[in-house]
Design brief:
Elements (H helix, E strand, L loop, with lengths): L1 H22 L47 E6 L2 E6 H7 L1 E6 L2 E6 L1
Antiparallel strand pairs: 1-2, 3-4
């Protein structure tokens, strides 16, 4: 039984190695392109999306979002916050202090 198991595991390793080799993963570096000379294009000017610097919060009961609305939850030292993804879509970052720690929440 042990010999069959060893043979089976050996065959599995060779099959996996063959799949990786044939998938192109091994030769991926041959396809790397150099973009270092390309110009960087920007769609928005610097600081076009303002961060929320002094967020104000309401209780969960007072929040005007649905129960299944997406949020980013943060909790430190017994202090918790929930940042609405819908709000972060327009700001992308909130600078805050939670549980005595300064944090940046990004989306």
């Amino acid at each position: 039984m042990r010999g069959k198991l060893t043979l089976l595991l050996t065959a599995a390793v060779f099959i996996l190695l063959g799949c990786v080799r044939n998938s192109g993963v091994v030769n991926a570096q041959a396809r790397v392109q150099d973009y270092s000379g390309d110009q960087i294009l920007t769609a928005l000017p610097y600081d076009a999306i303002p961060a929320i610097l002094h967020p104000e919060f309401v209780s969960a009961a007072e929040a005007r979002i649905g129960d299944d609305s997406p949020v980013i939850g943060v909790s430190f030292n017994g202090d918790s916050r929930a940042y609405s993804i819908y709000l972060l879509n327009g700001h992308e970052i909130v600078n805050d202090e939670v549980g005595g720690l300064k944090i940046a929440t990004t989306w």
